[in-house]
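Obj.: predict assembly geometry.
Materials: sequence records (below).
Method: joint structure prediction, all chains together.
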Amino acid sequence: MSRRSLLRGAALGAGAVTLPALLAACGSGPGGDGNTVTMGSNASDEVPRKALQDVLDAFEKKSGKTVEVNTVDHNTFQENINRYLQGRPDDVFTWFAGYRMQFFAERGLLAEISDLWKGFDGFSDALKDQSTGADGKQYFVPMYYYPWAVFYRKSVFEQGGYEIPETFDQYTALARQMQKEGLVPFAFGDKDGWPAMGTFDYLNMRANGYDFHKSLMAGEESWTDPRVREVFDLWRGLMPYHDEGANGRTWQEAAQSLALKKTGMGVFGLPLPGQQFSEADREDLDFFPFPEITPEHGRDAVEAPIDGYLMSSKAKNEEAARELLKYLATPAAEETYLKSDPNNVAVHSGADTSSYGPLQKKAAELVSGAKQISQFLDRDTRPDFASTVMIKAFQDFIDDPDDIDGLLSGIEAQKKTIFTEGQE
Amino acid sequence: MPHATARERRTRRRGLRRRFTARDLAVIGVLLGFAILLDLFVIWGPTVASITLSFSSWDGLSDLNWVGGDNYDTLAGGDYPPFWPAVRNNLLWIAFLGLVATPFGLLLAVVIDRGVRFSRFYQSTIYLPVVLSLAVVGFIAQLVFSRDQGALNAILGNQDNPTDWLGDRDLNIWMVLLAAGWRHTGYVMILYLAGLKAVAPELKEAAAIDGANERQTFLRVVFPTMRPVNVVVLVITIIESLRAFDIVYAINKGRNGLELLSVLVTDNIIGEASRIGFGSAIAVVLLTVSLGFIVTYLVQEMRGEERR
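Observations (raw structure tokens):
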């Protein structure tokens, strides 16, 4: 019985009872006086937390309203989002763009802000697309993004006389050359299950295009489709050039191998490898966009997860919340934010980029030139599908890249179960 | 006086049992009622709820759908690949702790009890891991077994082709069992040390006089005398095996060869996934496995009571 009570204790005690109660308690603060907006924040790390506070301070000064921030640990916030939104959520809260936002919009948990969007400028169509629900209305105010690309050390490339690969063939040839010269071509770590998704997304979008990526993620395409099979075939071809033992390595360790010049390049998101480089080596870090596979899709799509803000449909102080969202969509807000958190890139075209480091500048160019922006596999699809099916599937593939057919039919069978589960 | 009181007290007690005063009833009602309510609320309520939910499909947001045995079909039919590895790992866990770690703990207890030199030192060293939580043990395991930065590979010195102790899915479960066993052994040892101290020396002397050798004395006299401790150790071993969770979660979130039923329940229910119906079905499987052990144990216990 102990096992039982422990389990239930964990699930019901910690998850269902305490947290929503806590979160709800946070949300039940003063709010009716018209001057206070509550904000639920997942910015629990020091840097983003301070950055957000700076923005809100500026808003308070400008508007005379007060913002009450309730910061919850990043992962806890994410894991409890369902219960949070059903309980007594804050007026405004931090969240992600794309499917992960649409999912809640469809269930009526978010407040529509299409009219606010009419007044917004400086956001690209790709951004607007990511802020729009399945019903064609806008819900999301984007703040910043962090593009994924292939990172490398300039000194390593100079020393080896390597050229930046533009096409997939060049990419493979470069990997072959590095391996011949005793350098492990790709830094790779997938112990946490999600980092491999970046490589998969890029292979898929380069080979089959963004639209296919989107419909595959939405469960509309079959995973046993020859186009998916081709993606895995391409990946299998690259596997011998990846650092071995990826399932036992975190992305931090993978980025360190890049810093130590043990590996030549690696697919990462913008802020990630920089954190593992020493101050002096950071100058040496650079990236190039994931190479082209077919000319038809070129390098159109960029994987750049967007973070931003949503308003709950249960917001108590709607007027003030809308004012806050309006402020968050201004270049001034983004500039204030990025001053304290320079690991990201502003989404607003009007934001001042003069304080950007070289890597940030390059990243801003990369995303502003993108025809489509994808969010990352686990943000572009149902969270249950990403976490309970795809993580295991990628780890299985890394462990044994040869059984692609078995892997794909397994994914497809699970996809059918999960995607029918949510429908009435 | 003393003689009379014993009998008097007994009769008085019988009398009391027949006629409770209103106050007694109230006290009993409150004390017992509270415990029963708590039991119903904390144990039986959730149990029944998760059995019920296991026949549904529910994400915590939309309406709840009844799907009959679909969740169980998915589990048994292999449409959920981590399920059978998790069952296998849970059983492996019971087998390893029960057949390796526990006997080893007993052996250590016997050796220390016989008074080897520095026995206090060994005793505290072996017991030390028990004060660490399994999550910490998992963390230590990573420091030791990590492929690129671990202590073990540094000592072995095979930098060119290092063994991936925690990433290789044929190997990692054994490394984790080793780490879990490291902690379990100390626990079992301390329990048996207490048990051995409680065995009356006269019993051993009597056995020696009857001509029993060391082995016979231990197996036929000392070990059976420690029955209460044996029961506790058995129960602890099974509980520890079935509730194993933190160590694999600390290492790699219970994936890639380290699947456990408890992890699958958590993955599906808690977090954004919120496959509450499906996760409940896995929880019910875990409940059934636990019940199997509990019922067997209870039946044994009751038979033992009758025989006595």
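Conclusions so far: Chain B has a mean pLDDT of 86.
To do: check interface contacts against the pulldown list.
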